[in-house]
Amino acid sequence: CQDIIAEQAVVFPAITESTALAAAAFKDLGYNADACTVHLTDGTAVTTPVVDRWAQVDSIMDPAMSAVIAFEAEPSSLTDANRRVNEMMSRDRQD
Fold first, then answer.
1. Which residue from 26, 54, 57, 80 could staple onto 33, CB 3.0 to 4.6 Å apart?
2. How far apart are CA 59 and CA 65, in angstroms?
3. Stated pTM of the model
């Protein structure tokens, strides 16, 4: 499935082999795909975690991390954010 999409130069799939197909397809269309693949080839890619309830986790952690990075909160404030994430993740999914 990802190979079919890759060969159409629509997206860069998650499967490594399919990504190589996509890069070749984009090149065939005259696009340089290096900006999209350099971190994969260099081994410096950072994957986004796949997490159940990601939007909820992000709604807690994004402001908490932003406050720490902006020196508006101490790093120790992340303990409370972590507690809130753990509580949210332990609740029944219908909450």
1. 26
2. 11
3. 0.49
Place of tokens 């020196």: 71
User: Residue 6 CB: number of other CB atoms within 10 A?
Assistant: 23
How distant, in Å, are the alpha carbons of 28, 44, 45, 80, 82 from that of 41? 19, 8, 9, 38, 34
Taking CA atoms, 68 is separated from 39, 64, 84, in Å, by 27, 6, 16
Residue written as token pair 């939007």: 55
Q: Chain-wide mean pLDDT for the chain?
A: 88
Domain boundaries defined on the chain: 2-42, 54-90
- Cβ-proximal residues to 13 (8 Å cutoff; 6+ apart), any chain: 2, 3, 5, 6, 19, 22
